[in-house]
């Protein structure tokens, strides 16, 4: 075992402000909205003048950038989605005709394959990149990261937009360890060697890594120095029960982050209050819409996230339908910040299960399973169609030391599921370590419903 290192020395007097950009972060709602409107108008002009795609779309809709007089006017402009990005990129290689700068101004690209294979490219100018890293530093600062920290960034660096977020930690002065995605034994070695005080990974992996450490005789609470874990990529980081399990394993605080492969590595992150994720509202404008009707939903209600970049010059995204079901608040946070907060990512529009007409997300089930100490927290949803009706089975594992009869456990979860989601499910309680352990992006849904009329 490594000797415990002394704390990281910091040169000079570190800022003791809770804010990275105090004036911006605490401005009034009116100031945020005025700023958004001004940025949006300039951004629409830039897109219309420089991107063949937007010029065509706006002309076809009979719209000009000047038609945006209020924030509400944005809803008249057409939306687009990932399929459009893919199609326009194939039509006009390399960057697609949503790009609004010539390739020589592009200095960085990320790419993401999504589920259908062809990677879509997200370009940045040097200025876009610099601005992005500055607000990543701001998000990290809000989560309590400081120059005194040793920060291990355990995300993929290969064209993945989450990779460069490490530069935000570096910008604020933390010792930044570009760990990447390495086997868990190697990552544990890195965490011990550098006595990392902060770590970024996915929620499933934080859980898995903590359990792996314990199996190898390393107690993360005692043998490692990690006090903050940033997580993203799955809803788990905003599910209190999941966060609690990871925190118990590590003796660390978990901060949820939200990023998008075609936009920015992190668009929002939790402050020390950890009640919602502060949105980088000076870079991305948010709409939350009913996925069926397209009408805006009330604050706090669930709807599809539609976002608009405000200053990313290389490729503006105007009314990009993300496919995530989210909820937001504009209430002032107890930390003093006034930016919009993402209250939760409740699932993908695609993951939204409709069981006999009732909407349910895997995250609804996750919260219930992880709240019950007699379960290990692992789960899987199996959806089948029996006699032309949808049937949901929830598979869970009981803990090795649980004394409760299995039938009682199943009945208890069945009752909670019915009460919370309105869906009647079959619950199967399995022995511990039966379900496949997810390492990175967890696949916990097995939808076996095929064609409508399979018998
Ligand atoms: Zn806050």
TrEMBL record:
Organism listed in the record: Pararhodospirillum photometricum DSM 122
GO biological process: phenylacetate catabolic process
Domain AMP-dependent synthetase/ligase per the UniProt entry, residue ranges: 97-307
Domain AMP-dependent ligase C-terminal: start-end pairs: 357-449
EC code(s) of this entry: 6.2.1.30
Name the record gives this protein: Phenylacetate--CoA ligase
Major enzyme class: ligase
Gene3D superfamilies: 3.30.300.30, N-terminal domain of ligase-like
PANTHER family: BLR5969 PROTEIN
Keyword terms: Ligase
SUPFAM superfamilies: Acetyl-CoA synthetase-like (SSF56801)
Highest taxon of the lineage: Bacteria
Xref: InterPro entries: AMP-bd_C_sf (IPR045851), AMP-dep_Lig_C (IPR028154), AMP-dep_synth/lig_dom (IPR000873), ANL_N_sf (IPR042099), PA_CoA_ligase (IPR011880)
């Amino acid at each position: 075992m490594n000797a415990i290192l002394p704390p990281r020395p910091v040169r000079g007097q570190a800022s003791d402000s809770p804010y990275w950009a105090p004036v911006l972060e605490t401005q009034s709602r009116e100031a945020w909205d005025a700023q958004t409107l001004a940025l949006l108008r300039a951004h629409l002009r830039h897109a219309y003048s420089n991107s063949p795609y937007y010029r065509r779309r706006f002309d076809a809709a009979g719209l000009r950038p000047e038609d945006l007089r209020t924030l509400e006017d944005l809803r008249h402009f057409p939306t687009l989605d990932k399929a459009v990005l893919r199609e326009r990129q194939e039509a006009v290689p390399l960057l697609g005709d949503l790009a609004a700068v010539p390739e020589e101004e592009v200095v960085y690209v990320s790419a993401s394959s999504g589920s259908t294979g062809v990677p879509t490219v997200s370009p940045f100018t040097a200025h876009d990149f610099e601005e992005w890293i500055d607000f990543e530093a701001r998000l990290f600062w809000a989560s309590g990261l400081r120059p005194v920290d040793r920060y291990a960034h355990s995300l993929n660096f290969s064209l993945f937009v989450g990779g460069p977020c490490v530069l935000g930690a570096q910008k604020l002065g933390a010792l930044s360890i570009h760990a990447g995605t390495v086997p868990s034994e190697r990552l544990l070695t890195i965490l011990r060697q550098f006595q990392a005080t902060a770590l970024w990974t996915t929620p499933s992996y934080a859980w898995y890594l903590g359990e792996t450490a314990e199996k190898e005789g390393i107690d993360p609470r005692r043998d490692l120095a990690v006090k903050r874990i940033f997580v993203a990529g799955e809803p788990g980081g905003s599910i209190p029960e999941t966060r609690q399990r990871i925190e118990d394993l590590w003796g660390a605080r978990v901060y949820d982050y939200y990023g998008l492969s075609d936009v920015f590595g992190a668009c929002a992150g939790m402050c020390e209050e950890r009640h919602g994720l502060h949105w980088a509202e000076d870079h991305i404008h948010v709409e939350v819409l009913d996925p069926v009707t397209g009408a805006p939903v009330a604050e706090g209600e669930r709807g599809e996230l539609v976002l608009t970049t405000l200053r990313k010059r290389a490729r503006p995204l105007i009314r990009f339908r993300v496919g995530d079901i989210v909820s937001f608040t504009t209430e002032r946070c107890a930390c003093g910040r006034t930016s919009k907060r993402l209250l939760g990512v409740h699932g993908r529009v695609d993951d939204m299960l409709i069981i006999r007409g009732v909407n349910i997300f895997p995250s609804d089930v996750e919260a219930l399973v992880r709240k019950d100490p007699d379960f290990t927290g692992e789960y899987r949803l199996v959806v089948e169609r029996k006699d032309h009706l949808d049937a949901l089975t929830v598979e869970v594992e009981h803990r090795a030391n649980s004394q409760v009869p299995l039938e009682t456990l199943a009945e208890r979860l069945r009752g909670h599921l019915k009460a919370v989601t309105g869906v009647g499910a079959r619950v199967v309680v399995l022995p511990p370590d039966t379900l496949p352990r997810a390492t990175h992006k967890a696949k916990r849904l097995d939808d076996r419903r095929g064609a409508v009329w399979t018998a």
